[in-house]
Specification:
Chain A is of the alpha/beta class and 344 residues long. Chain A is built from eleven helices and twelve strands. Chain C has 14 helices and no strands. Classes of the chains: A alpha/beta (344), B mainly alpha (334), C mainly alpha (312). At the B-C interface, helix 1, helix 6, helix 7, helix 11 and helix 12 of B face helix 1, helix 8, helix 12 and helix 14 of C.
Amino acid sequence: MTESSGAGGSSGEPLLRVRDLRVTFGGTGRRRRGDPPPTVAVDGVTFDVSPGQVVGLVGESGCGKSVTSLAIMGLLPKRGVRVEGSAMFQGTDLLGLSDAAMRDRRGRDLGMVFQDPLSALNPVVPIGVQVTEVLRRHRSMNAADAKTEATELLRRVGIPDPARRLTEYPHQLSGGMRQRALIAIALACRPRLLIADEPTTALDVTIQAQILALLAELVADTGTALIMITHDLGVVAGLCDEVNVLYGGRVVERARRHELFAAPRHPYTHGLLGSIPRLDAPSGERLAAIKGSVADNLAWDSACAFAPRCPRSLAECTALTPPTEEALQRLLSCHNPVPVQVRS
Amino acid sequence: MLRFLVRRLIQVIPTLLLLSLLVFAWLRSLPGGPAGALLGDKATPEKIAELNHILGLDQPIWTQYLRFLGRALVGNFGNSLITGDSVLAEIGRALPATAELSVAAMVLAVGLGVPLGYLAATQRGRALDSATIVATLVGVAVPVFFLGYLLKAFFAVKLGWLPPSGRESTGLDATRVTGFAVLDGLLTREFDASADAFRHLILPAVVLGTIPLAVIVRITRASVLDVLDSDFIRTARAKGLAPSTVRGRHVLRNALLPVSTTIGLQTGLLLAGAVLTEKVFVWGGIGTLLADGISRHDYPRLQALLLLGALIYVVVNLLVDVSYAIIDPRVRLS
Amino acid sequence: MNVLMQRRRERLDRLAAAGGERDGQSLLAEAVTRLRRNPVAMTGAAIIVVFVLVAVFAPVLAPHGAEESFDALRAGLRPDSIPGPQPGFPLGSDQNGRDELSRLILASQQTLLVGVLATLFGLVAGVLIGVLAGAFGGWVDTVLMRLTDVLLSFPSLLLAISIAALAAKASQTTVIIAVAVVSVPVFARLLRGAMLAQRSSDYVVAATALGIRRRHIVLRHMLPNAIGPVIVQATLVLASSILDAAALSFLGLGDADPGRAEWGLMLANAQTYLDVRPELAFYPAVAIILVALGFTLLGEALREALDPKSRR
C-alpha cells in the first residue's frame, strides 16, 4: 500500500471502494403475520475515498447516509438486516470479514465519531478509561504508557488540563469537550479512515465551527481520510474535497466541492442549495424549500424516488429509473437535470 | 459521604416516628382494644377494664404513646405476652436465623437472576428468552408457601435428599458464634455442622428466593436490552473492543443501575416472604415470631416486629441510595 | 431523594403518562387490537374467561353442595387416610367427607369475590385519592401524595399481614380490607399522574377557558381519559390480591369459617393433611396458580402494549 498522496489526492488506488451497497431491514428469517414489510435503507450506493481525501455524504434524514457508514463499520445488527455489495478497504472486502477480523480493524484502521457526544460516551466510566481501552486493545500498550498517550491525545484535540480530565466522567465535561474526547478516541490508533456522522449537529453553533476546524486540521496533519456525513451543506462547503449527495438510499449526484456549489445539476441538490439563506440575496427573496418529505418516495426500480417532490419532474420520472452518467469526476442520475448555468 | 449518611439517617427519624404512631394508633383503635382481642370470647367489661389497667391502657392515649416511645428509645419494647420474655431479646435470638435465610435467598436470586436476565436479553426473541419470560411469570404466580410444601414433599419426603425442616439435625450440638449456622461451622471448624446447616438451608432459600429471582431476571433483561440499544455501546463496538470488555465494562455496569434498585426493593420485601417460608420449614426466625404473635395476639411483640420491618426497609433504602451513588458517578451524595 | 421509592413512583408516573398523552379509550382500544395478536395475552384471557365461566355456572357445574357431607365418604375417613376418587366423587373426599370436586368448583365464586372486591375497594379508594390530587393539585396533592408515599414505603404483603393481624377477629371482610389497602397507593399515584398529564392538555385548558364547570371537566373529560393505565394495573392487582389473600389464609388470618369453600382457605386447611392426602392441597393450589397466572399474563401484556418504551 502506497502512502497517502496528500489531501485532495485522487491518484492511485482508492483507500475505500464502496460498490452497490444495499442494506435491507426486515425480511430476513421467518416472517410473521403483522410484521412490517422489509425496507431498503441503502439502495446501491457507490463511491470511493482516496487516501487523505475528505468525502462528504450529504442528504436529509432518512436518505441512508448513517446506515451506509454503519454498514462500512460493520456496526449494523446481525439479525433482521441484510447487507449486500462490497466495501473494499486496502484490498479486503470489509463486508465479508469475520466478526473477529472486523473487530481488529475497527478502532485501529477505521475510526468513527458519532452525533451526540453525551450518549456516545459511557456515563459510568471515566474518560481516561474510555480513551486508554482502545490504545490497550490495538496498540498493546501497558497501563502507564496508555495513560501518557491518552493525555497527549486529549491535549492534541484541544482539551485543557488533560491529566485531570482523564479522571472525570462524561457528565462533567461540556458538549464541545465531549466531542473532542470522542475525536481523540477515534484517532487514538491513527486510523487510515475516519467516519464522522453528523459530528456537530448536537453542538452549539460556536462550538460547531471549532470542532470542524479541529477535524480539518487533524486529518490534514495525519493524512487520515475522512467521510463526513451531514445534512448541512455549510459543513460540506468548508471541509470536503468531494461531495456525494444521497437521496432515497442512492447517490444522485457526485462532484468536487467547488463544481457542486457552482453548478448543481440534480434538482434535489439544487433544492438543498436553494434552502440555504444567502447573504448576497436581495432582501425579501423567499428561500426555496423542497416540498413534501421522504415519505413520498417512489421505489428506484421503476422510477426516480425524488419525482413526487421534484419541481422538474417529467412523465418518465415516475416510470423509469433515471440513468446514471459519470464523467469528469462528476456523477449524475436524473432524467431532467438542471441546465448548466452561471449562478449570479 | 459521611455527611450524606448522617443527614439521611436523620431524615429516617420522622418516617419511623410516623410509622410508630400509625402502628400504635391502629392497635388502640380496635374494638375492645388489645385487651378485648386478648380475652376474645371471654371478654366482659370488668375483665377488659382490669386488663387495661394492668397494661396501662386506661391512661390518656398521648401519655401511652409517649411512654411507649420513651421505652422504645432505650430498646424496651415490653415483654411478650406468650413467653413473658423481653421482646427485644426474643428478636435478638431469632434475627440471625432470618438473616442467614435472607442472605442465602438473595445470593441465589442475584447470582442466578442477573446472568439469566443477561442471557435472555442477548437471545432476545429466541426460545431461551421466551422460556425465561414464561418461567418468571409462573414463578410470581405460585404462592410462596405452596412452593415450599411442594419442594419439601418432593426433595425431602419423597426423595429424602434434603431435611424437611429446622436449621440443624437434632443431637448435633453445634457451637454458635455469629448465629449464622453455616458460617459458625466454618469458623469453629465443625465442618460437619456447617454442611448439615447448609443442607437445611437449601430448600427454604430456594423458596424465599423464587420471587426475587423472577423479578431480578425480568428487570435485568429489560435493562440490558435498554443498554444494548444505547449509543455508547455502539461507540464501544466501533473501538473494536473484545466482546468480553464490551459486556463487562460497558453493558453490565450500566445495566446494573436499575437492577441494584430492584435488589434493594426485593431485600426490603423479604421479611414478608420469610414469614411464610419460615412457617413451612419451621425455621424459628423472625417470621416464626411474627406468625406466632399474630395467631396469639401478642401485641407488644407485633408492635416491635412491625417497627423492625419498617426499619429494615428504611435501612435497605439507604443502602441502595449509597450503592447507587457508588455505581453511578452522575448521582452526587448531597 | 430516596431512590427506591423514586423508582416505584417513576414507573407508575411513566405508565400514567403513557395513557395520559392520548385519549385513554382509543389507547385501550388500540392496545386491545395489538393484544389479539399476542399469544401471551390470549392465553391469559382464555384462562380468565374459563375461570369466570366456571364461577358463574358453579351451582350448575358442581354435582353436590359445598357444605354437603356424605356418609359414604365419611365412613372412609381415618386419621391416616381420606377417601380418594370413587363413583360419584371424581376427586374423592375432603377432610370432612365432602365432595372435593364440588368444593373446588364452588370455591371459584368465593375466590373471585375476594379478588374482585379487594381490587374494587382498592380501586375506588385509590381513584378517589388520585382524582382529588390530580384535579386540584396544590396542597391537596401534596398532602395526599405524602400519605400514599408512607404506605408505598412499607412492604406490601407485610402491610396486609399487619392490617389483618391487628383486627380483633379474622374474617373474610378483614382479608378483603387488608388486601385492598395495599393497592390503594398504587392506584392513587397512577391515576394522579395520568390526571396531571390531562390537566395541561389543550382540551382541558380550552374547556376551562370556556367557563365549563370544573366538576364537569374532571368527571366527564379528565377521568375517562386518564383511567386506561389504572385498569391495566387493576388486572395485575387482581392476581396479587388472590395470592395475598391465600397467604393470609395460610397464616391463619383468613376466614374464620373453616367450612367455607375458597381456594386459599382450602389450600391452607389442607396443609394439615399433606401426609394423608396431598391432592387436597394440590387441587386448590393449581387453581390459584392458573388464575393468578391468567391475570398476570393479561396484565403484563396490556402493560407492555401501553408502555411507550416497548413500542419501538
